[in-house]
Amino acid sequence: MHDFHTHFIPQEVLDWIKENQTALKAERVKKSPDKDEFLIINNKWGFELKPEFYHFDLYSNKQFMAGVTHSLISPIPQLFMYEFPQEITAEISNIYNQALAMLASLAPEKTSALATVALNNPDMAAAELERSMNLGLKGAIIGPGLSDKMLSDEFFSPLFEMANSKKAILFIHPLLSEDPRLKTKMMPNLIGVPWETTVCATDILLSGMIDKYPDVKILFAHGGGFLPYQIGRLDKGYEQWDQVSSNLKAPPSQYIKRFWFDSVLWNSSGLDFLVKTVGENRVVPGSDYPFDLSETPPKYKNTAGASSLLETFSAFL
Fold first, then answer.
1. Angle in degrees, 0-180, between the axes of helices 122-134 and 157-166, rounded to the nearest 10
2. 253-291: pLDDT as tens digits
3. Whole-model pTM?
């Protein structure tokens, strides 16, 4: 069984963070006796730094015990570092990707990986994606844009052009929402994360950019947020408003079947609805391991989505 949504931090990345802790405002905080230290970067988006995040043997053994035969590893969103100067973002991307390529090469039948790139400089991001894929990575994990730019913005075209030429996987994974209304009750994670995905996915769909970049394999985290559930509303808007239909050649309910979605939903009825909406060949098993809300092992076992997503990388099927 594949697991398309996992995260890991190589020791080289942790060493780099320690060396640059002043510039990054990086700190480790012990919040309670029964928890591991939390890693906090730039005073936000702290997360519990569990040993599974950085001890590869422990990570691998727990995946094996869960029945996962192949893990696709992604860098963690808290270390995207898009808000920093582009030189910093590019440097951690280079270090992270080099380390992941080395890990994946040790047991390619069990492990593959995605890169992280400097989304704040799309030319750098395109070059890093090309370099990383030449090292054996399968694409990149990226956030849903920048604070002032959606991914459909022409600003990001160098990255999407490269991804299209390389037939890369682009795994779009949200950062925690900074909506000021979502301050308590863990709402930034509970609904902010899928909301960010919903906004990003809807923008990409309605922009028509998947016609422009047909060979980019866009994978959305957490079942695509709320978009699949509201696709009928988008179809109705397509019938009514030129602003919705002008960039599209078919209704949104057809375009949504050209994305891929992971199965991290924690709800069998929700998962069944997703599969019915987009097709079983567009849903892939995922766990979000080893974050707190991980669903390990993935509940979705169907291999059709894995086959379609990885058709360019047949050795990993």
1. 20
2. 999 999 999 999 999 999 999 999 999 999 999 999 999
3. 0.95
